[in-house]
Amino acid sequence: xxxxxxxxxxxxxxxxxxxxxxxxxxxxxxxxxxxxxxxxxxxxxxxxxxxxxxxxxxxxxxxxxxxxxxxxxxxxxxxxxxxxxxxxxxxxxxxxxxxxxxxxxxxxxxxxxxxxxxxxxxxxxxxxxxxxxxxxxxxxxxxxxxxxxxxxxxxxxxxxxxxxxxxxxxxxxxxxxxxxxxxxxxxxxxxxxxxxxxxxxxxxxxxxxxxxxxxxxxxxxxxxxxxxxxxxxxxxxxxxxxxxxxxxxxxxxxxxxxxxxxxxxxxxxxxxxxxxxxxxxxxxxxxxxxxxxxxxxxxxxxxxxxxx
Length: 308
What we know:
The chain is built from eleven helices and ten strands. The chain is α/β, with parallel strands linked by helices. It has one domain (2-214, 261-297): Alpha-Beta Barrel (TIM Barrel), CATH 3.20.20. An eight-stranded parallel β-sheet has the order 9-8-7-6-5-4-3-10, covered by helices on one side. The longest helix has 17 residues, at 239-255. It is globular. A hairpin with a 6-residue loop joins strand 1 (2-3) and strand 2 (10-11). Helix content is 40%, strand content 12%. 51% of the residues are buried.
């Protein structure tokens, strides 16, 4: 188990991504994945009000609704840690005070609960003063609608300012950070953002941990994969991507683990990382993700992957 930053939330170091619920996984499939995740000891589920707005016929909130119906059916709200977000939904765009107030109530209604455990600013809304965003999120915590607040897609400079503002206002400060980070996408997090997260004891929960599926090893030269994410994954298949796959294959052979598990284990070995986010469309995809939450790589194996 790992603790989410300075909170009292202890979770398996794997954050199940809910972006596929209501998109590539229907309600029945989603329930099966959630049941499998819980049975394997998982409890930390990530979603957002915008999921899955991009699907024709959807309006956003589909993922939250499915998760809420699952928790109601299983009567397990107290056993799970729920994170959701505000900022990207068409109905409540941005993180103004009005948007946050409307969005949190909508999320709670869809999730069928009176609070979420972690509530993110999904974006750094440049059109809203940072003071307003921080204060609005602080109100959500003060009202008991969220236990903690967090940031996604913030730069180091803006994140530092948000933390300072929270301290000045005396409101809840961010306890976690959700950046785009994986073995083939590193520049955004490594450096200033990583240093700040470690210094401030923020739990880092990277999204796209498997690079849209590329780091599962399915996407290789001469291979066609029938997946809605194939286009996103295929863009990594260049000389650097091939070198990373070769290194993953080598470490997977040494450990007896899958390429997927090794890629997640590499992430967990990086400073600040608490629980990588990874999604599963079917229960059959879960074992490799769960294994990645417990696999420990040697320093030499981590170095081999990093250098690739």
